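Example 3.2
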Amino acid sequence: MTQAATRRVFICGSALRGQPDHQNLQSANFIKETQTQPLYRLHAAENGWHPAIYQPRAGGISIPGEIYEMTVEQFDYLASNEPPHMYPTEVLLADGDSATAFFYPQELIEQHGWPDISGHGGWAAYKQSLAAVG
């Protein structure tokens, strides 16, 4: 695959390895585990149905995730399966690189009062903590 024909995508939620929506990545090439620069917040949207990441003006943390190399077709398929209101944008990674991630509008998160799970160690750790309680 050529650089122009692919896109590096940061996954930090329900499409992570071992999570229920991982198949939405189809056969995208896993590159590495990583984390963002400490600039973002992570919330459990829609009663914990999916993660919602955004960049606040202040108070961000590092969000753990995975980088995948995707073809245009794989990216389009992933985008078509994202929840409403999510949009692709660039995220800054801890190593100084960047990748595309799917963000959620901060104003909608605040409007609904969805819980901030930034301190749980990422989406997979948050879901695992819920399973341990339930």
